Amino acid sequence: MPYIANTQNDRQEMLEVIGVSTVEEMWEQTGIPAQKADLSALPEGKSEMEVLQYISELAGRNATDLSCFLGGGYYDHYTPAAVSDIAGRGEFLTAYTPYQPEISQGTLQVIYEWQSSICRITGMEVSNASMYDGGTALFESILMSIRQNKRNKVVVAGGVSPIFKEMIHCYNGNLGIELVEVPLCGSSTDPQKLLESVDKDTACVVIQYPNFFGEYHDWTDFITELKAHDKKVVTICSTYPTALALLKTPGEMGFDIVSGEAQCLGLPLAFGGPYLGFMATTKKLMRKMPGRICGRTVDSQGREGFVLTLQAREQHIRREKANSNICSNQGLCALSATVYLALMGEEGFKEVAQLSTSKAAFARQLLGEIKDVSIITGDNFFNEFVIETPMDANDLVGKLIEKGYAAGYPLGKYFPERKNQLLVAVTEKRTKEEIKGLAAAMEAILC
Fold first, then answer.
1. Among 71, 187, 192, 412, which one has the highest count of C-beta atoms within 10 angstroms of its own C-beta?
2. Which DSSP symbol is given to 100?
3. Which DSSP string do the residues of 353-396 spell out, in sequence order?
4. pTM of the full structure
5. How far is CA 263 from the centre of its chain?
6. What contacts 217, CB < 8 A, 6 or more positions away?
7. Residue 48: enclosing H or E segment and its boundaries?
8. Coil, strand or helix: which one is 129?
9. What is the 3 state secondary structure string of 200-267?
């Protein structure tokens, strides 16, 4: 029910239940000063129709018809209509946390299929379920490495998302983990400087691939050299799963833990979520992993079934022994992503990635031809890149919104020295006409 209207009789009945006769008496018993509890400024109640009309009017103020070139970890990919239709079925929509797991075979099978999909995409051996989003999944990966080697220093590459880095700093507020960030060289991180930052106290090295600015590099040699030093440092990769349809996987490069944001897999853009984190690792580190792992087995009669083989959440075991208390089931989001991947198939998933990167290359070429606009991101990029303009990128974005384009992410928000730079992302949804339109609108403003 979208709206519940309480009558005067309803309110009086509630007051009687709590032992008072008026709202004013209720506030007096709370100890809140009367002037702070004055509700006279509240507007009169409205009917259900009036409320819906008012909310629709507010929603209509949002610019929902823009051509979206936003990126930075959250992307405007197309979601087939069948995803919401299947995920909205009653048996899926109402299912949540499998506290009595073995009677929830359908839910467990979805978790198992989700884990299998993530392992195939990342090239890793084991995946879990139950991560909030990409940022918390990355922080969980850091905690996992600390549990593994009992060290306290974390080396973070400068190309890691500033959004994720803020989340890491927030969660680390009372933990005292030593965070060391290796500065960028342009729009990428120098592997040699990462190596130089690692010492005997280092628990892990955190790398984003492709990085926040869209560039990607093969980290195989870095990982080989790091492990050749036998420093027993855990290597963590935060990644963009759609890009892995075309790029070398973190598993092939030798990473120990892979995490990321799965919003791109059939989930719509939203004001903060709900989104979906994922995590995958090696069999060696499996027991340090938070959340759940679902396995497939057979019963005493030889019938196939699904079981939770690892339940390291505080709801399942003693809180002090839990690997995490910031992970959640995210079952419906994981279901939607699993349905999306099943519908797209291997070839469809690759096609989405190929279209995204080829259209991004087209956009990069057009925008780079505009007078006084320069390309910052190198040639090794997936579907987003950085441009520098002769004006504040935040102001430019505002002017382009008026012309119907969400042109990108102004980097000055997190990097004051980059206030004229704009991160532009292109997905398979953007048409040739939209890209040309963006270039023409930007040129009209700048020239």
1. 71
2. S
3. HHHHHHHHHHHHHHHHTSTT-EE-S-S-BSSEEEEE-SS-HHHH
4. 0.87
5. 6
6. 188, 191, 209, 380
7. helix 48-60
8. strand
9. CCEEEEEEEECCCCCECCCCHHHHHHHHHCCCCCEEEEEECHHHHHCCCCHHHHCCCEEEEECCCCCC
Q: Find where tokens 């022994």 sit.
A: 321
At position 256, the amino acid (one-letter code) is: D
Alpha carbon distances (Å) from 109 to 106, 259, 260, 294, 316: 5, 21, 22, 8, 20
Q: What is the per-residue pLDDT for 1?
A: 45
> Exposure pattern of 127-152 as b/e (b: 16+ CB <10 Å)?
bbbbbbbbbbbbbbbbbbbbbbbebe
Residue 346's H or E segment, with its range, is helix 331-368
Sheet holding 384-388, edge to edge: 374-375, 384-388, 421-425, 409-410
Q: Using an 8 Å Cβ cutoff, are 134 and 73 in contact?
A: yes
d(CA 37, CA 40): 9
pLDDT digits (tens, 9 = 90+) for 200-213: 999 999 999 999 99
Cβ-proximal residues to 158 (8 Å cutoff; 6+ apart), any chain: 181, 182, 183, 184, 189
Backbone angles phi, psi at 68, to 5 degrees: -95, 120
**Closest to 409 measured CA to CA, from 437, 383, 435, 384:** 384
Give me the residue label for tokens 């922080």: 139
From CA 111, how far away is CA 141, in angstroms rounded? Answer: 20
Question: Which residue from 428, 425, 212 is spatially nearest to 438, judged by alpha carbons?
Answer: 425
* Rounded (to 5) percent helix, strand, coil in the chain: 45, 15, 40
Q: What's the half-sphere exposure (Cβ side, CA atoms, 13 Å) at 99?
A: 5
Cα atoms in the 13 Å half-sphere on the side-chain side of 133? 15
For 173-230, the pLDDT digits (tens) are 889 899 999 999 888 999 999 999 999 999 999 999 999 999 999 999 999 999 877 7
CB contact burial 387-410 (16+ within 10 A = b; e otherwise): bbbeeebeebbebbeebebbbbbb
